[in-house]
Amino acid sequence: MPLHQSIISVNQEDKQNMTKTNPGNYFEDFTVGQKLVHATPRTITSGDVALYTSLYGPRFALQSSALFAQSLGYRDAPVDDLLVFHVVFGKTVPDVSLNAVANLGYAECRFLRPVYVEDTLTATSEVIGLKENSNGKSGVVYVRSTGFDQRGDAVLDYIRWVMVHKRDQGSRAPEAQVPELKTALSENDLCVPETLALERYDRQEAGSSYLWDDYAIGEKIDHVDGITVEEAEHMMAARLYQNTAKVHFNQFSADKGRFGRRLVYGGHVMSVARALSFNGLANAQTILGINGGRHVAPLFAGNTVFAWTEVLDKAAVPGRSDCGALRLRLVATKDQPCDGFPDKDEDGKADPAVILDLDYWVLMKRAS
Amino acid sequence: MPLHQSIISVNQEDKQNMTKTNPGNYFEDFTVGQKLVHATPRTITSGDVALYTSLYGPRFALQSSALFAQSLGYRDAPVDDLLVFHVVFGKTVPDVSLNAVANLGYAECRFLRPVYVEDTLTATSEVIGLKENSNGKSGVVYVRSTGFDQRGDAVLDYIRWVMVHKRDQGSRAPEAQVPELKTALSENDLCVPETLALERYDRQEAGSSYLWDDYAIGEKIDHVDGITVEEAEHMMAARLYQNTAKVHFNQFSADKGRFGRRLVYGGHVMSVARALSFNGLANAQTILGINGGRHVAPLFAGNTVFAWTEVLDKAAVPGRSDCGALRLRLVATKDQPCDGFPDKDEDGKADPAVILDLDYWVLMKRAS
Amino acid sequence: MPLHQSIISVNQEDKQNMTKTNPGNYFEDFTVGQKLVHATPRTITSGDVALYTSLYGPRFALQSSALFAQSLGYRDAPVDDLLVFHVVFGKTVPDVSLNAVANLGYAECRFLRPVYVEDTLTATSEVIGLKENSNGKSGVVYVRSTGFDQRGDAVLDYIRWVMVHKRDQGSRAPEAQVPELKTALSENDLCVPETLALERYDRQEAGSSYLWDDYAIGEKIDHVDGITVEEAEHMMAARLYQNTAKVHFNQFSADKGRFGRRLVYGGHVMSVARALSFNGLANAQTILGINGGRHVAPLFAGNTVFAWTEVLDKAAVPGRSDCGALRLRLVATKDQPCDGFPDKDEDGKADPAVILDLDYWVLMKRAS
Predict the structure, then answer these.
(1) What is the pTM of this model?
(2) Is the pLDDT of residue B13 over 80?
(3) Which range of residues forms the domain containing residue A125?
(4) Among candidates B72, B76, B110, B79, which has minimal Cα distance to B283?
(5) If you measure CA to CA, which chain C residue comes closest to B7?
């Protein structure tokens, strides 16, 4: 019995007969329109930010320096966008994906306002679609998850779809409802802080002279460096996000599984690749949105991650002439340098070294 | 020559002839009534808390969210009880257990008041018992250790007994004095913050609907999940606690030793097991006291820790009807899931997978 | 083309034809008198300090306790000197040593004023010497690097010389200019905070009764303990310092290299050895300067680090009778305990176990 229901409807007697551990939700437990309130509010601290730095080594000046951030009109260095994403995502796991077969995709992920140290994040999800698989064993659940700060203001929202086991194969399927998803956010969906001011932007401090104007659609950038991932690192990361998905932590059980290894949390790969992308995109100070993302293949400890970027699109930011948005495709590989831009073949099949294919928008200063 | 004595009595000439490194205290160096002032005061920061989260992944709402804590009458999110325990314990190591053969037990551990970020902790110990072993090679030292905050208020005290080497087998033994130890703290020994207020307690945020009333004496809970421990993690933890016990850090020396491996700090196992126990005990927001604990077998990096709980007792909290105390037995295993509740056999011999057997009191909201 | 030049002189058209990743500077890119402004300002937080504690386990009271620091006239616990060094050093890597063959040495490193949590550090370097190697393939670059806080006050400066590849072997060499370097800083070069007050210095809290007066020139101290280093630890450290030197992170590339292993950042060894030196030097609360340092041999994960100290010199601190300076030689080894003080042989050849030979000044209270 799922947590959010038990709180509302379970009486004392029933509870005595149930396990007190969280069994997670099965496909039958979800209904379209259902609201899930996720557990464990989380106050973000400078300690979380330091761990994020230590785990990935990001060098974007906006998150690294309170002074640089203030020179751009932020009240302090904002918390890294992906740290916010991972914390909110982690909260959804016990209610959405504890019984997942696979995480299928993301869409329409928008970073709505900056998060600062001392903000307390909470998360809710709404079920927006359901579709049973033809085999009767599982189904796809679509949720829109939202992260809030302590003022109740939304800081992030995104759509995720997951394949979830059914508890009982014989149970009747709900009518299929599949939401329409945008292929990509448009510039009107992107939120730029109103206080953003770029006159004092210091490219030397930021680490690159290349601005929005310097990037061309179709341009490819090899981020050169590689980072080898260790078990202690990806587990410390997932615990920092209070992400409890079993596959990341339990080697005893992994020994009996398909891979024989603990799986690195997909979001860890996103953060490693984003940090690598500094070398070539140092002025991409903040992520505005994620259009979609695919964890093409699993990553294991001991693998070395490389990354390359393709510029997919460029857009003006409505109402501003000092900055623009770049739509980027960030491809990460394992154990293969990216000077050859490993990609799909003619049949659309990904190069076997590719582990992540992420489509996202960043904000970048324009030449004045 | 032990530190606490050298400070008082050693003159300049003597010192020139001595090593400047700390040799630790031997059995002969202890006398009943002796007070030890431990070194290195420690200001606890939000960085320490973030590392604790990253190393164990606790999800109890009280320590995770400043807002949740404030809704319960705390002025901020308190520092995790076991983090406080480990920091105080770490300070005692150089003076109490540097020459220990074995850590034999804990008793009467009371968490006396919440510790917050920016508090500075110090520690002292008083020798309360001594008993030479019949082999003349070592003896048991009983100490009561106390942690203080910057106001001089005690935040934690506990009794520990340790088997310590004698420096000289021929030295004369002191008269045996063995303190009487309580098997368990009673409800009158437990300290609940006076400002605690539970009317606004949010079970959805806390992550479970099960309250004090829902737990029955004798009930067993399998905490389901397993966590594999890495060398980098347990060493980072022990260093965070400024715990310098040699067995945790030195593989070169361990290669020549009994196990051939570095030993994981026993407190690390306590914290892993406590974090696992969230799944089944999410409303056990704070530890009131530890009645006793036994590190039944050593844990090594690469092992996967599982845990289960038995409800040993339930008690009212004097003067309060909104919360109660649960006396829990937390058993941790290595490389063995706990769905079968691995335990002692008829002869009282522990299952070989068991590594920790901890008897402690938690605070939990009562149904109103 | 090096970053600092591209910002000044590259026009739009040129940039379209260049890679956007940082190729680093080659020997030909440096000229004596050239100023390099390094990227990514960094606000130091209590999270960074906690990670430093967790990675090395330092126990010096000054950095551990805000109260102890305040009792000595500091406004808060200062950030560990070597953490400041590593952060400033990390910033110089992309501009100074990305194409380095080898890091040859340090000199005249002075800690100029305390750094506190919330200070924002930036760094610049000035090229003070150049000398091409006779093989025409590389040359030695001498830089003086300076770290600044948000007020623009210098907190640290040091000279470093590095052997750097030439881009083109045929390019003409500049006239050799080799700066004169001091063998050691004199007491007049050392900066002691004006507010320092030692009347309330508590040796019990500090952990040792041995003061400046107790150390004799020529005295050797074995620091006894050993610490095994893990891959996750040294990489987390280097990323915390935003140090991007490729050799620390990329096992895929290391597999094809000379050692087959990732190299541990030399500064990591300095910090491990400094933390070990607490056992024997607990009152050496702060580093005043580094006279020179040599990374004698590489360290790899899995090695166990030991350390010993030789007292090289003692000096009064100008204008103060309450404290003095000790000039120490800190020698670190791998996989060899230091009770025999492993050192150079008669021919000056280092014991093969030695990995670090550091010559530095510390501040210590004098007996009153």
Answers:
(1) 0.95
(2) no
(3) 1-168
(4) B72
(5) C209
